[in-house]
Amino acid sequence: MPNQQKRRVAIVGAGIIGASIAYHLVQRDIDVCVVERGPGPASGTTGNAFGWVNTLFVDPSDQEVLALRRAATAEYERLAEQLPSAFQYMRRGSLLWKSEPDETESLVEVLRKEGLDVELIARAEFVRREPLIRNVPVCALASPKDMALQPPALASALMAAAVERGAKFFANSRVTSLHTSNGAVTGLIIGGETVEFDLVVLAAGAWTEELLRPLGLSLGLLVSPALLLRYSSDRQLLSHIIKSPELEIRQLPDNMMLVAKSLKDPLPDTSAIDGMGLEMLMRIRELVSGSERIEFEDGVIGHRPVFSDNLPRTGYADGCKGLYFAVGHPGVILAPLLGRLAASEIVDGIPPSGFEHADGSHLRRSYAAT
Ligand SMILES: Cc1cc2nc3c(=O)[nH]c(=O)nc-3n(C[C@H](O)[C@H](O)[C@H](O)COP(=O)(O)OP(=O)(O)OC[C@H]3O[C@@H](n4cnc5c(N)ncnc54)[C@H](O)[C@@H]3O)c2cc1C
């Protein structure tokens, strides 16, 4: 098909979700253009994500969310085969324990009942897997297939692969508003200029509502802040993602350690973040033997785009032609699946379906006009 006849699709945002949609769409003979206000891919929340791909933190009574997370984590295996370079520093496996051993035991039991691949390990096995943890728990949940990956590297790899296949990527280009004509979205306004597209995909994460608001639309998106703290280390101390009652921590192949922590309003200022970083440093030293020489580097607040029902929103906007959106949390876990499903819906007109225990309709909830 000659280039000018291809459907022109703009994606606003080169976070992990926008990059994944670009990667999947460009393989379907679509003229893809990604517009990002930051200097490169992962300039938003993806740049400060912890990178844990798992199905552990879902209320098992919420079968919709569970089905979606399972489908999403399974999708990662496909992507890892397609784009091995993006996964070269990936690690597998997490260890988690609660304050009381019976809490850990019942969590393992509940998750195993749901068919999740987790096991309960006792002290001796824990020490074998993570010999440097002090105050070894009586038992822990081991989730061997969990992935620990670098979300910015994955978003960049997805964008690079999309560009290699013909997608255009415009960094440092803030979309000031969506261009509309007769109630339909027909393009983007960037730097005072209108650029026309056949379809606009909003993948602007926590900033999605800013672009919807002038159209009188809202997805009901809530923004949930979280802190990513980084610590330098001169050696490898941890092999797994560790979630103790006090800490969520992992170590990168270059020895850097990451700690993730949810925040509540009011958000801490720079000196309060430094204080939290130092407090966590003490906890790391208490938890990990040999960590005396690690140093606090910095802490950055990220803005997680969440919905009250823990489901993402993706699909065509009801009553507003030319607009598609894909936003939700946990975006790193969901990105490969949402990218593939969005491409399939945009190109083939096939709405998402086929999850075990769910008909996929949860992916397509429409927004309410404000
Ligand atoms: C500390 C922390 C730990 C986390 N850990 C995990 C985890 O372990 N696993 C997990 O799955 N998730 C995790 N998350 C959540 C995850 O980071 C987000 O859900 C995910 O990154 C959202 O991706 P996104 O592509 O939707 O948004 P973003 O990455 O924010 O991408 C949106 C992009 O849109 C761009 N943009 C916005 N407005 C405009 C505009 N007007 N014009 C042009 N561009 C625009 C932004 O610059 C940004 O690059 C964590 C988050 C934090 C903060």
TrEMBL record:
The keyword Membrane applies. Residues 8-343 form the FAD dependent oxidoreductase domain. It comes from the Bacteria. One of its GO terms (cellular component) is cytoplasm. It holds the Pfam family DAO. GO terms for molecular function: oxidoreductase activity. The chain crosses the membrane at residues 9-26. This is Glycine/D-amino acid oxidase. It comes from Bosea lathyri.
